């Protein structure tokens, strides 16, 4: 709902379709989301190869979802910053850098979790 608008909220179905549209737009236009999805697919294939147990699958799938969600949020932050500050501004750059850093930190931690999960499946 737009602030100050008298229109009702979109239906659940319409909200769901907006979310799918946003995901498609991100996949079509953003390189990093493609990289994250590729990494997730690689982790899933590797999970089948090593024969992960159900708990390990839950961890891997949760990590994939969290990283992709973080990248989508980073993309949203960068898009809004570009909208409100089309010319360079140090604070706009700082906001974009911090959002990207959040994804980077999460990705490093997820990589460590992946090492633990796959090492456990392979060696123990």
From TrEMBL:
GO terms for biological process: phospholipid biosynthetic process. PROSITE patterns: DAGK_PROKAR. The chain crosses the membrane at residues 33-51, 57-77, 98-123. The active site is at residue 71. Keywords: ATP-binding, Cell membrane, Kinase, Lipid biosynthesis, Lipid metabolism, Magnesium, Membrane, Metal-binding, Nucleotide-binding, Phospholipid biosynthesis, Phospholipid metabolism, Transferase, Transmembrane, Transmembrane helix. Its main location: membrane. InterPro entries: DAGK, DAGK_sf, UDPK. One of its GO terms (molecular function) is kinase activity. Coiled coil: none annotated. Substrate binds at residue 71. Pfam families: DAGK_prokar. Mn(2+), Zn(2+), Cd(2+) and Co(2+) support activity to lesser extents. It comes from the Bacteria. It is a multi-pass membrane protein. ATP binds at residues 30, 78, 87-89, 96-97. A divalent metal cation binds at residues 30, 78. Belongs to the bacterial diacylglycerol kinase family. This is Diacylglycerol kinase.
């Amino acid at each position: 709902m737009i602030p100050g608008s008298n229109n009702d909220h979109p239906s659940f179905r319409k909200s769901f379709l907006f979310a799918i549209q946003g995901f498609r737009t991100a996949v079509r236009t953003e390189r990093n989301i493609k990289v994250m999805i590729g990494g997730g697919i690689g982790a899933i294939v590797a999970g089948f190869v090593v024969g992960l147990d159900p708990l390990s699958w839950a961890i891997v799938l949760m990590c994939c979802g969290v990283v992709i969600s973080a990248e989508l949020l980073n993309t949203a932050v960068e898009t809004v910053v570009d909208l409100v500050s089309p010319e360079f501004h140090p604070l706009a750059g700082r906001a974009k850098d911090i959002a990207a850093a959040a994804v980077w930190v999460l990705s490093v931690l997820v990589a460590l979790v992946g090492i633990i999960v796959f090492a456990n499946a392979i060696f123990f």
